[in-house]
Design brief:
With 667 residues, the protein is α+β, with helices and mostly antiparallel strands. It folds into 4 domains: 2-68, Ubiquitin-like (UB roll), CATH 3.10.20; 73-261, 2-Layer Sandwich (Threonyl-tRNA Synthetase, Chain A, domain 2), CATH 3.30.980.10; 293-319 and 358-553, 2-Layer Sandwich (BirA Bifunctional Protein, domain 2); 567-659, 3-Layer(aba) Sandwich (Rossmann fold), CATH 3.40.50.800. Helix 4 (72-93) packs across helix 5 (123-138) and helix 14 (418-435) runs parallel beside helix 15.
Length: 667
Amino acid sequence: MSDQVAAEITVSLPDGSTRMLADGATGFDLAQSIGSRLAKDAIAVVINGVESDLSTPLSSGVTVRVLTGNIEEGRQVIRHSTSHVLAQAVTSLWPGTKFAIGPSIADGFYYDFDLPDGAHFSDEDLVAIEQRMREIISEDQPFVREEHTFTEGLALFADQPYKTEIIEGVRDTNLPADEELALEISPSGAQVSAYRNTEEFVDLCRGPHVPSTGRLGHFKLMRVAGAYWRGDERRPQLQRIYGTAFESATALAEHLHRLEEAERRDHRRLGAELDLFHFPPEIGGGLPVFHPKGALIRQTMEDYSLAMHREHGYQQVWTPHIAKSTLFEISGHLGWYAEGMYPPMEMEGATYYPKPMNCPMHILIYKDRQRSYRELPLRLFEFGTVYRFERSGVLHGLTRVRGITQDDSHIFCAPEQLADELRSLLAFVLDVLRAFGLTEFEAELSTRPEKFVGEVEEWDAATEALRSALEAAEIPYIVAEGEGAFYAPKIDVHVRDAIGRRWQLSTLQVDFQLPQRFDMSYVGADNSRHRPQMIHRALFGSVERFFGILLEHYAGNLPTWLSPVQVCILPVRDDHEDYGAEVLSTLRAAGIRVEMAPADEPLGARVRHAKLEKLPYVLVVGDEDVANRTVGVNSRGTNDPERGVALDEFVGRISQEIDQKSGPGLS
């Protein structure tokens, strides 16, 4: 009996249950003991929080989670393994290639290469590489893990300078250099890990990987780009091949369809086609100018947001775009964010900076006089433009800019008010986002990191208040343990758009640091000074980014209330233009944004042009409409015009849509 016990191990599963396995059992054995379907789908395991190969032997007492390809962690393993197959294919087609790193990334993977004799990849080369990759996959080559000393690792990769640089960097600093390297401490000392597919191909990697190449195959190579080694423009420029991979042909096809939809919806293209904004080179990257129609959309967004803030007890403020360096020294921004700030300006013996955030100036408004507990919570709100010097390589239309207008709010409250304030604040945020047609929400609660300021009790109370707000809002959320800023926990609200992409929008951030740095206080009911709690909140995130997200969510077909032109009137002939002008005046009197296109082109051409402008309504007026005071209504998204609609009826219909924040053809 003692031999029987000694020959078994007990492992725990995520649900708290346990499994008895034979001594020496692997992750695959565990999956097989749970069920044949899981064993078939399993690609890796997580052992005590560490991702590992299915072939890894298990120890008694460990907690194990089996990864399958249809969850994000499993897809990352599939993509990383596919990147190794990509490297193997390239090195076999171009002998003498130097290969650098090939990690998985969001929705895909890449690998960086230095081809021999200055060769460059072409589109035709991607086809050949894909074909070679499929041959490697069909051979079902196993991914075999190897461990080496630093000396052995350097010898193994002696002909690969990028790999040897990684190994030497880790050896000399005793720290992992990047995600391509595993440094493991064992009784024999530090070891370099690598994965071998054949005698000809081995790659430096921490893993894990799928058991064999035969578990792969649902992939596509997307494009070639340039990339400096380690992101340093002083280092060699490599060629980067991007690809994507999924667990099934269906999942891959859905992803490729989303990419096609994303290209069709690209806000940069729509911005040009709809005459909304552009980025003049004379101004500089990341600083857009909004054309009349774009400015009108933006103003409509801001007007609605401002009205809702006033309705919910916010007080609007305005602050300047620059301030003396002393303000940002007190706030800590010069210590924390100096690299992301615009360079200083010297004027009359003082140093000025464009503001990177609005919060220090809102604090100055709070501190202008002594505050009483009777004034709390004090909710200050501003459309404040801040400036952050984003590198040109990360700028992306309106979604990554250098001039950022935030619908920024800072709430100052007594500690005992924090929980209620966060609950009402989160509900307010979600209500406003819903008005813009965003309805699928997820959230992330980031908690106390290892290094933090403030008291543990404060952190625990603030974290629980944020958790309570999420529970009251009834939206799904995850807890990002230790991912909070050093000065307090926060909630990040994410939305999913019409094609399923996830966007991080609103942030609710409690702050223990700034009230202390600025020595903020209020006089309590006990006539003593107390420190207020502070909440940072940007609802849209930024007006520019939110504008871009909305354009893509609606594919340019903005709801009626947001459309810069809501109605276009098309007289059939020039003798219908007088009645068209009456319709225009009637609509304008009702507050509707309307234009009329004169009958100087054939009607069909004018209808097509109006549809290209993605207008909610096109009204055609002819002989019968003049006689009966009616209009022909062409609603966006339909091919069935309505004839003889009474003008007053149409005015009532569209006015109701605007009030209800709705409209036609929003898919």
